[in-house]
Every structure is written in C-alpha cells, then in structure tokens.
Specification:
This protein is mainly alpha-helical and about 425 residues long. The protein contains 23 helices and no strands.
C-alpha cells in the first residue's frame, strides 16, 4: 500500500514536474525530497499547497485505501446515532456510546478532518466520550464550529451551537444557553438561505425555549411565531407538534386555559392527520395534562390511558415514561386515593434529561403531591423531607401553577 510520500512522488512524475517545480515558493526542494521519501510529514498547510500544485484534492493524497473505509464507517456511525436517539434506557444509551467510540478509535490517526465525513466522525467521537464523562471540557467542541464553517457545512455548524446550548441548559445556566443560541443565530446570518429549513426551525424552537426559561415571554412568542411560519410554509409537521405541545404547556402553566384548549385541539388534529407515533405520544400526555389541570376530571385519567395504550399497542413509552406515571399519580391524589398515589409515585425521580424550569417545576409539583399524600396519611416526617426538597427546587423558577402548588403545599405541611 502506497505511503503519502510515494503518492506525492507518483503524482509529481505523472504531471512531469521536477521537485523544484512542485516545491514552488512554499517548500524547499530538500523538504519535498524528505516528504517523498517518508522522512518528514507535511503540515496540513503544506499538504493543501501540494494538492493544489498537483491539481487534486487533499483527500486523494491522504487516501492509502482507508478513504472508502472511513466513508463506510461514517455511514455506520450515522445509523448508530439514529438508533441511539430512539433509546430511553440510560444503560442502553451508554452501551451504544461505548460501541461507537470503539468503532472510531482505530481510525483516529487517519481522520484528518479535511472533509465533512471526517469532521463528523471526530465530532461523534467527542460527543460519545462526553456522554460517558460529563466533566469533559467543552473548549475542544467549539473547534468543530470553525471546521464546519470552513467547508460551508452551515447547518451542521448550527447544530454544534445547539449542543453547546443544551450543555449550558443541563447546568441550568439559562442566560448562557440563550447567549450561545444568539451567537449561533448571528454566525449563520450571512448564510441564512443556505441553511436547511428544518435546522433553522430548530434554531427558532431552541430560542423559544431559551427565552421562556428566563421568563421573557415577549421574545419567546416572537420566535415562536417565526418558527410556526416556517413550519407551515415548509410543511414540517413533526416540529409543529413540538411547538403546539410547548405552547400548550406554557398556557396551562400560566392559567391561559382558552389558549391551552386551542392548542390541544390543534395537536389532536395533527396527530390524526400525521399518524405519527411520536406525535401520538405527545398528544397522549397533553390530553392527560389537560384533563387533570383544565377540566379537572380526574376519574377519566385511567380510561384515557387505556385508550391510548390500545392505539399505541406495545409502546412501552406510555408505561415507562415518568410524565405518564406523574399524571396518573396526580389524578389519584385529587380523588383522595393517597395510598394509590404513592404506589404510582413512590420511586419517582426527576429524569436526568429534564432541564427547563417549567418542566422541572412540573416534576417538583409531584414531589409536593407525594409530600401531601404522606402528610394526609400522617407520615409527617417523610412529608416534611419531600416538601422541603420540592420548595428548594422551585424557588428560583418563574411563577407557574406548578410552583404555586409546591409553595401552597409547603405552607399547609408546615404552618396549618
């Protein structure tokens, strides 16, 4: 198999260049001789110069037979990424992450980052390592933004900003989250027409979420309307479902019940039209949340759950996801079935992927429900531990019905 030096030498002779002619004014004849005889490695800058002189792509100089292997690896890794996004079990996510690291690691020396596939492989390698070690510095990740911009992969560049923003959201640094997304919006402004509409829609969605996290309702609504405009023009139904769900939850949280009814109906119509399982799941949760918080018809929750389970047969999401368990627990509590409420919620924990203050407040409310259930069953010590945890959790969050429930429960347990 040819070495890099041998490939340069072979191409030089095919072009009938002398070493002096190929070296030009960038390299010395002596340095080129060392490179051709594999006694020196050219820098990336020198390699680009030689490729230009020879009229070929840098990848052609680098290809020792591994280029096809790297392309196959890229395809395989992207398929793994798609599979990983469908996983819920943290152990399965961890296992697949390790598997991807092991696939990429043997090729790291050959992955030069000269084209999209190679940059993406290095990015995935970094991402999977950070999945395993959250303490890994993000400084290295910023480099991918510059690399994607250099090859005009603007949509992928913007997705790097999304990841950095999500990392800030994980730390509950909501102002930093917004600042990163705004930086991303500014960086792609010159290339806006070259951005995939779905990625642009994702930017507006993330900005809507980020502004709502800092309780800037006006700006959140502004980006929401921009996003809905794109979704409707481009017929991007999956994201419309995300927006309808987001508007619905915010409306319930702020007691805008007419608005919540409107967007719940939109979501139901979209679910019927699309026949998409993910939209059906979102609709199922919003339906339960609507009945619990707007209609307050708690006795209907079990029946509604049964109906959705029949439609989404064998879909463990409805059985396993904490938000469905929470809704069932909420209904049992309000029907004064305190022991049954604790059966649903006894082992409830806030999922590790929940970071938005409104979503977090929803879960802290269920800790307050658990506290009240213990309180009414006269387990006062456990009730106090639970409600202190819930109250501390929501103190810095925007005012919503979820936060208010927690604060009222705290007052009842400690001062009634």
């Amino acid at each position: 198999m040819d070495t890099l030096g041998e490939r340069i030498k072979k191409l030089r002779k095919e072009k009938k260049y002398t070493q002096t002619e190929l070296a030009g004014d960038r390299l010395t004849k002596g340095m080129l001789s060392l490179i051709e005889n594999n006694k020196a490695q050219p820098s990336m800058e020198s390699l680009r110069f030689l490729a230009k002189q020879l009229g070929v792509e840098v990848s052609e100089l680098l290809d020792d037979g591994t280029l096809a292997q790297l392309r196959n690896l890229y395809t395989e890794i992207e398929e793994d990424i798609e599979r990983r996004e469908l996983l819920i079990d943290p152990e399965q996510v961890q296992s697949l992450s390790v598997n991807m690291i092991e696939k990429i690691e043997p090729y790291l020396a050959q992955i030069q980052g000269t084209n999209y596939e190679q940059i993406r492989l290095r990015e995935v390698y970094y991402l999977m390592n950070r999945t395993i070690n959250k303490a890994k510095s993000l400084e290295e990740y910023w480099k991918f933004i510059d690399q994607y911009e250099a090859i005009h992969a603007y949509s992928r560049m913007l997705r790097c900003y999304f990841y950095l923003a999500f990392a800030a959201m994980e730390q509950r640094n909501y102002q930093d989250t917004l600042a990163i997304l705004k930086q991303g919006e500014q960086s792609i402004a010159p290339y806006e027409l070259l951005i995939d509409p779905i990625v642009r829609l994702d930017l507006y969605y993330n900005l809507t979420v980020a502004y709502s996290a800092i309780d800037d309702i006006e700006m959140s609504e502004r980006y929401l309307q921009k996003a809905l405009g794109i979704a409707k023009r481009k017929h991007i139904f999956y994201r419309m479902a995300n927006f309808y769900e987001l508007i619905f939850i915010h409306a319930v949280a702020n007691k805008e019940y007419d608005k919540s009814t409107q967007y719940f109906q939109k979501l139901k119509l979209l679910a019927d039209f699309s026949e998409d399982a993910s939209i059906a799941r979102a609709t199922a949760h919003c339906h339960l949340h609507y009945v619990n918080n707007v209609e307050r018809n708690y006795s209907q929750i079990d029946q509604i759950m049964a109906e959705y389970k029949a439609v989404l047969a064998n879909d463990h999401y409805l059985y396993d996801h904490p938000k469905f368990i929470c809704e069932q627990m909420y209904a049992q509590f309000h029907m004064k079935n305190y022991e049954q409420a604790l059966v649903y919620g006894k082992s409830l924990k806030i999922p590790g992927f929940i970071h938005h203050p409104i979503d977090l407040a929803m879960y802290y409310r269920f800790y307050a429900i658990r506290a009240l259930a213990y309180y009414y069953l006269e387990d006062f010590e456990t009730a106090k531990k639970e409600i202190i945890y819930a109250k501390n959790g929501v103190e810095d969050f925007p005012d919503t019905i979820y936060k208010q429930f927690v604060l009222n429960a705290y007052s009842e347990i400690f001062f009634d």
